Amino acid sequence: AQKITQTQPGMFVQEKEAVTLDCTYDTSDPSYGLFWYKQPSSGEMIFLIYQGSYDQQNATEGRYSLNFQKARKSANLVISASQLGDSAMYFCAMRLYVSSGSARQLTFGSGTQLTVLP
Amino acid sequence: DVKVTQSSRYLVKRTGEKVFLECVQDMDHENMFWYRQDPGLGLRLIYFSYDVKMKEKGDIPEGYSVSREKKERFSLILESASTNQTSMYLCASRAGAVLSRNSYEQYFGPGTRLTVT
């Protein structure tokens, strides 16, 4: 079964600085997608960025970029120029593109609580 | 604007009660999901459905059942609530397989915080 590991329960960053949130994954399947979601204190899950296992370039979405290192099985999220509104829980997730079963669905890591300091 | 709604933000039930959590999406999505979220464990998949009346077990289905009689509605049922089912429950939906990056995104509801006493 696939597994997602986020080893940083909590992180602090100064406003306007960049921060990297770590994510490693474990699967033997060649076809998968990696996702990052943000969950503010309001509880809503907000999709941030997606990377497919066959994508040649690292994904970017505004201030978010995904540092995809396939050989290391890591998919770290980089947030540039942190803002106070970035304070939230961040989840890394993976989905296998297989034909059936729960493995087709998102598997989430345990999350990293990011706090941006003024 | 895409929308997933859940019937309650907060719910308090007694042990042994039958509990219904309702989820409705207005995006005509084929796939719907129920997760529970607990501190330090992230989100864990309880059940999912890829079509009306179709359902599959997720990673932690024990103690739960689901119903999908209409495409837009997916219900989670706790037949006999127990204190270890106190948690945040999140519903999500996703479009079927389409050759588009956006098709892989899951949209989440606001969550229901259930307390079983």
Provide a compact summary of the structure.
Chain A has 118 residues and is mainly β.
Explain what the structure shows.
- The complex is a heterodimer of chains A (118) and B (117).
- With 118 residues, chain A is mostly beta strands.
- Helix content of chain A is 0%, strand content 51%.
- Chain A is built from no helices and twelve strands.
- In chain A, strands 2, 5, 6, 10, 11 and 12 form a six-stranded mixed β-sheet that branches. Chain A has a four-stranded antiparallel β-sheet with strand order 3-9-8-7, with no helix packed on it.
- Chain A is globular, with a radius of gyration of 14 Å.
- Chain B is mainly β and 117 residues long.
- At the A-B interface, strand 5, strand 6, strand 10 and strand 11 of A face strand 5, strand 9 and strand 10 of B.
- Total strands of chain A: the figure is 12
Shape of chain B: globular
Largest interface, C-beta closer than 8 angstroms, per-chain residues: A-B, 25 and 24 residues
Low-confidence stretches of chain B: 98-103
Query: Helicity range of the residues of chain A?
Result: under 10%
Number of DSSP helices of chain B? 0
Total helices of chain A: the number is 0
Rounded radius of gyration of chain A (Å): 14 Å
What is the helical fraction of chain B, as a range of percent? Answer: under 10%
What Rg of chain B is obtained from the alpha carbons, in whole angstroms?
14 Å
Oligomer: heterodimer
Distance, first to last CA of chain B: 37 Å
Beta percentage of chain A is: over 45%
Tell me about the largest β-sheet of chain B. 7 strands, mixed
List keywords for this structure.
heterodimer, A: 118 residues, mainly beta, 12 strands, 0% helix, B: 117 residues, globular
